[in-house]
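Quick log. Single chain, no ligands specified.
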Amino acid sequence: MDRTRSLRIVFAGTPEFAVAALDAIAAAGHEIALVLTRVDKPAGRGRAMHESPVKQFARGRGFAIEQPRSLRDEALQQRLRALDADAMVVAAYGMILPAAVLGIPRHGCLNIHASLLPRWRGAAPIQRAIEAGDTESGVTIMQMDEGLDTGPILLAEREPIRPDDTGGSLHDRLAALGAHTIVAALDRLQAGTLRAQPQPADGVAYAHKLSRADALIDWSQPARRIVDRVRAFDPVPGATALLERMADAPIKVWSAAMAPSGPGTGASPAAAASASSWALRPGTVLLAAPGRLLVACGDGAVELLELQRPGSRRLGAAEFLRGCPIEAGERFVTPAAT
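-> predicted structure:
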């Protein structure tokens, strides 16, 4: 390939994660022949139509935009063929690419995936990695095939998961890393040095799409698991706690920590007197004052540090308890009890 000319790229992406990559590819001097993104969707209380972050960015840069409802549309496929693109770059597009589309660009379709494949194939790799307690993530540039994130690996870069990372903070770092890595992959493509390696057969894990049921805290789980889930689901979808007496008003938990698993911590008079207090039913409030909120879980207790009631804002535990008094002995329900 002639390294003196820019590559002609079709870009397919939708959320904020993809914007950095689109920006970086254009900044590297490549031609953005077309941007594919999901159709506008209603959002917010007024249900007004909202453009995807990628569409907003592409429109601002004057890129051609298509928002197909299906990639099986023959007219769209004819347009893609007419573009004579060197490659399609896909980043969190949100639509399945049929085989007919995968074969159109000269060098196929390159996907930016926010994990070190084959671990965390699927829709929610960032959140699932934190939820599982992983200490490392990264970005994989993959040659797309018809499987679910099963294509050969072209390039991969590692990124540590920090103890205080949230889904949001790791998302932002991986978006930047993905932008850097796809440009490096395109450089190698230009140079004729980009090589594909099959994914390892071992270590496969699936990052299933997030659901409302996932967000509900299961207090029977170990403290570490609960804390990691709270971190993983900040900001989306937000871990949810249901206080038994107000289960119709779910409380978002934005920050939590493992509490000392023993007596003498001020959890309650009973907790101060006996270690058996820490074996209360999971979800039982052990302490709701002064300014602290400790809840029993499967192997000890979790301290809730930042919470939010419906229609309110995020508050530290002390301020939250002033507006929403909770007593020791009350219970947060678990999914099995709902």
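The longest strand covers residues 300-308.
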